Amino acid sequence: MVEENSTLYIVEPLSNSFRVMYRLKRVLYSGKTRYQRVDIVESEDYGLTLLLDGLLQSSEIDEEIYHECLVHPVMVTHPNPRKVLVIGGGEGSTIREVEKHGTVEKIVMVDIDGELIEIVKKYIPWSRNSFEDKRLDLFISEGREFLENQSDGSFDIVILDLTDPVPGEHAAGLYTVEFYQTVYRKLRDEGLMVTQASSISHTSNMFLSILKTVENVFPRACCYGCYIKSFSSMWGYVVGSKSALPPDLGKEEVDLRLRERGVEDLKFYCGDVHVSLFKLIEVYLRFYKGEARILRDLEMIGR
After folding, report:
1. pLDDT at position 42, please?
2. I want to staple 173 with a disulfide (CB 3.0 to 4.6 A). Which of 27, 54, 153, 301 is the partner?
3. What pLDDT does residue 14 have?
4. CA distances to 76, 135, 250, 269, 274 from 255, in Å
5. Residue 161 known to be catalytic
6. Domains of the chain, with CATH numbers?
7. Average pLDDT in the 262-283 region?
8. Phi and psi dihedrals of 73, rounded to 5?
């Protein structure tokens, strides 16, 4: 945060060469957990906003766009998702969206930062109730270690709602080919995984590298994206699947599955949007090209 004429601003790096600045109304919470700095602020443009290590993670104005796009494309693609694993997503909005699907019998959430979860329960209202769902098992643990200790074929869906892949940081090992190989083993026969995949427009090299890494492990993979105003970017997602992919579904089938599963209170996602997510990415990638490489443990976590 910086102060100018008694007014607070956030200056946020979106890449090595690009910064954005936005004005704050007030700071509700500022402190450090064992793993990261946490700021909860009210922004003039974005409303209530969560920042981790100075980077915007979620905001009142469009968190539903981000989380609905992360969760529902893979959920509707699976014919009967009963057991879902969420790694990360400490804010609670990711599990909130999973909980809307009537087929789900068990949700396992794993986050490394239990202190963060308690902070957001206190200050962020939009996902507070998601932690009360009886289908939820919450574990405070490192996600990769937790997953390695699960039985093969344990999950129908794995959702990775992580901080960005910065080499050496605590989430870096959750974007490598070795980690995705573990995800593959823990998925059931029709299983899918989805990961947030950073900015298509500002960090296209990383976005394309995540896609290439997932393609190296899964028999089928795809990517998609949508514009998130509070991220100042077209944001990317990558899917790996043992069977069906989200683009296989037309809008009618998406809407039918949402109705059959009793999914309600969606603010952004629907059959029309589903189809558009995959059409848009084809166009955007004509403009935002980059160098794709396979991400490995040696590069990302030094071993």
Report:
1. 96
2. 301
3. 87
4. 9, 24, 9, 10, 9
5. yes
6. 2-57 (2.30.140.10), 63-300 (3.40.50.150)
7. 96
8. -55, -45
